[in-house]
Amino acid sequence: MTGVTILGSTGSIGLSTLDVIQHQGPRFNVVALTANTQVERLFQQCVQLEPEYAVMVDINAAQKLEDKIKKAGLSTEVKQGVEGLIEVSVLPQVEQVMAAIVGAAGLLPTLAAAEAGKRVLLANKEALVMSGQLFMDAVAKHNAVLLPIDSEHNAIFQCMPEDYYQGLNKCGVDRILLTASGGPFRDMPLEKLKDVTPDQACAHPNWDMGRKISVDSATMMNKGLELIEACWLFNTTADDINVVLHPQSVIHSMVSYVDGSVLAQMGMPDMRTPIAHAMSWPERMSSGVNALDVFEVATLDFQRPDYQRFPCLGLAEQAIRQGGTMPTILNAANEVAVQAFLDEKIAFPDIARVVDNVMEKTGSHTADTLDTILADDRSAREQAMNAIAEC
Ligand code: NAD
Ligand code: MG
Fold first, then answer.
1. Is 245 helix (H, G, I), strand (E, B) or coil?
2. How far is the CA of 172 from the centre of ligand 1 (A)?
3. Which listed residue, of 11, 23, 59, 68, carries a Cα 20 to 30 Å from 224's Cα?
4. What is the pLDDT of residues 275-285, one digit of tens each?
5. Domains of the chain: which residue ranges?
6. Strand-strand pairing, 77-80 and 53-56
7. Does the beta carbon of 2 lie inside 6 Å of ligand 1?
8. What predicted TM-score, i.e. pTM, was given to this entire model?
């Protein structure tokens, strides 16, 4: 049996991962589950699976979970805090770590899993956006296996030649076509964007996801973060990646070769497919997802992205071109701004304004140590709070 830790087991990706594991029966052993504050949901998962460990980052929540677990007579040991997350990411009985925490909070345990040489199933794109080179160096140095869960990157990985990491131009790849649905506001008149509500922003036409990534999809910051993620995962630059609007979300991304071939990976918009792919790689296993009915899909549309409608996409491109800790700064400002939008403190178009303002006012540095990255993450968050106060 393959031992698995699921970081963020109560979230959208966490639940899809558990679904795939249950669908597979005894092939996987869930060693540890983690969540931030959702005691009841994590408790129910413990009742069902009785993992060795359950971690709650929030200390009060951890106490509550421990009381419930004792009362229920379960053998699960409760740990707490970021230390708890790190502990369960490096256990010797764990071979695979699903990194499905949302945002910068996932960086330390995900990096710890890489440093422990695990198979890292990366959904938490913000961790890689923040730490780029440092993360990729840790993967290489400790012989970890980094497999993308993000549907686009999983698709690109499936369409790449085996030796892609030596450089795309050395293995016949011309460019990456990163697809994007355009989210719920793709066709909304621009002047109406200032009035959209968090619930409207979170109602994604094709995917059912957590609230932060849903807002990121509506601003297309998600695609910006994914562009940065793709640069690191596939050892390339923004120049070799084109963002393509594809409203149906049937093609999950494409790789274009020098001979004129374009390879695409297609499937239902269901995260259980990339999750099953990465958990069983290099083999294939059933995920519980039905095969795509191409007759049902019938048409596939493609458009160029509109940078005026989606300024966050341009800001993310600017951040990766500037390099250093600028992607960390972009990510931190975006996390704070998205939370302020969800809390109804700022309007939807203010998200991009806040990120732009923070990128302008926060100095970036060479991103060669974790301390520098975390310090710039903190400065950007402070600057974002100031910018929000001025909105
Ligand atoms: P979600 O909000 O549904 O779940 C987030 C999980 O992280 C929860 O289990 C929560 O308890 C935990 N968490 C939140 N804050 C935390 C903190 N401070 N410390 C520790 N744990 C914390 O989010 P999601 O949609 O599952 O997304 C998770 C990650 O996967 C994100 O990085 C997202 O960009 C990425 N992703 C998601 C999808 C999707 O379809 N949902 C697709 C591609 C990539
Ligand atoms: Mg994606």
1. strand
2. 35
3. 11
4. 999 999 999 99
5. 2-148, 160-268+305-321, 323-391
6. parallel
7. no
8. 0.98
Using the mean position of ligand 1's atoms as its centre, give its distance from the Cα of residue 98 in Å. 11
Q: Is 109 in the pocket of ligand 1 (CB under 6 A)?
A: no
Residue nearest to atom 31 of ligand 1 (CA): 102
* C-alpha distances in Å from residue 302, one per residue of 182, 221, 224, 261: 11, 19, 18, 17
Looking at the domain that runs over 323-391, which CATH code has it been given? 1.10.1740.10
For residue 208, name the pLDDT band (cuts at 50, 70, 90): confident
Question: Candidates 7, 9, 10, 13: which one to mutate for ligand 1, based on the most atoms within 8 Å of Cβ?
Answer: 13
Per-residue pLDDT tens over the stretch 40-59? 999 999 999 999 999 999 99
Which atom of ligand 1 is closest in space to residue 212's alpha carbon? 2
Q: Is the CB of 55 under 6 A from ligand 1?
A: no
CATH 3.40.50.720 fits 2-148, yes or no: yes
Question: How many CB atoms lie under 10 A from the CB of residue 33?
Answer: 28
Tokens of 319: 């951040």
Sheet of 2-7, strands arranged across: 77-80, 53-56, 28-35, 2-7, 96-99, 119-122, 145-148
